[in-house]
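TICKET: design request
STATUS: open
ATTACHED STRUCTURE:
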C-alpha cells in the first residue's frame, strides 16, 4: 500500500503541467478581492474610523474598476470556458490527475478480488447447505 502511494505521487508529479504565469493586472485583481475579504473578516481588529476609511477606499476603487484586469469588458458576460484553450488545458490536467488515481485503485481492487475470490463462497456455503437440509 505504501509503495502504491509513492508510485501514485510520482505519477501525479510527472503528469502535472507547469502552472501558467499570471500577468500583473490579473494578480492585482485577485489580491484586491482578497484584501476586501480580509478587511471584512478582520474589521473587529481595527478602530471604527480606520475601518470606515479603508472601506470607503475599497468601495470607490471597486465601483470605478481600478483593480480590474480588463476595465473594457466591465459589465459584459463572461466568455465560454469551453472555448478557451487555457481552460481546456486545465481540464485535461484534472483528467490526467484523476486517471493517475483510478488506475492504481483499479489494480488494487482486482488484486483484492483475486485474493478473496473463494473466501465468501467458503464462508456461506455451509449455511446454504444447512438451510436446504
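STATUS: resolved
RESOLUTION: sequence designed for all positions
ATTACHED SEQUENCE:
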Amino acid at each position: 500500500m505504501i509503495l502504491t502511494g509513492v508510485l501514485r505521487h510520482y505519477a501525479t508529479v510527472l503528469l502535472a503541467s507547469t502552472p501558467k504565469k499570471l500577468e500583473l493586472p490579473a494578480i492585482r485583481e485577485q489580491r484586491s478581492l482578497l484584501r476586501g475579504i480580509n478587511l471584512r473578516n478582520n474589521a473587529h481588529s481595527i478602530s471604527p474610523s480606520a475601518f470606515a476609511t479603508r472601506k470607503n477606499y475599497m468601495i470607490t476603487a471597486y465601483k470605478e474598476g481600478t483593480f480590474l484586469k480588463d476595465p473594457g469588458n466591465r459589465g459584459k458576460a463572461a466568455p465560454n470556458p469551453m472555448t478557451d484553450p487555457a481552460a481546456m488545458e486545465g481540464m485535461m490536467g484534472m483528467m490526467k490527475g484523476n486517471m493517475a488515481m483510478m488506475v492504481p485503485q483499479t489494480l488494487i481492487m482486482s488484486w483484492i478480488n483475486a485474493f478473496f475470490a473463494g473466501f465468501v463462497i467458503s464462508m456461506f456455503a455451509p449455511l446454504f447447505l444447512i438451510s436446504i437440509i
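CLOSING REMARK: Residues 63 and 126 are 77 Å apart (CA to CA). The mean pLDDT is 82.
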